[in-house]
Amino acid sequence: MKFTKAEITKARQLKQLGLDWAPGTGSYVWDEAGIINCESPFHDLVYYILDIKHFLRRADSIKQLQRDLCWLPTWFDARQILDGFEVSADDILARLQADNAFAEQNERLCLYQMIEEVLSRKTANHAE
Question: Domains of the chain: which residue ranges?
Answer without folding.
Answer: 5-127
